[in-house]
Amino acid sequence: MLVPGAQLLRRTLGRIPPARSLMDLREIVSALNNFAPLSLAESWDNVGLLVEPSPPHAVSTLLLTNDLTEEVMEEAVQKRAELILSYHPPVFAPLKRVTWGSWKERLVVRALEHRIAIYSPHTAYDAIPQGVNNWLAKGLGPCTSVPLHPSSAPSCPAEGTHRVEFSAGNTKGLDSLISKIKDIQGISCLTTLPARVEGEEQTRVSLSCSQKALLEIVELLSQNNYKTEILLLQKPPLPHTGMGRLCTLHEAVSLSHIIQSTKNHLKLPHIRLALGVGKTLESPVKKVALCAGSGSSVLKGMEADLYLTGEMSHHDVLDAAAKGISVILCEHSNTERGFLSELRDVLTSHLQDKVNIIVSEKDRDPLQVV
Question: pTM for this one?
Answer without folding.
Answer: 0.78
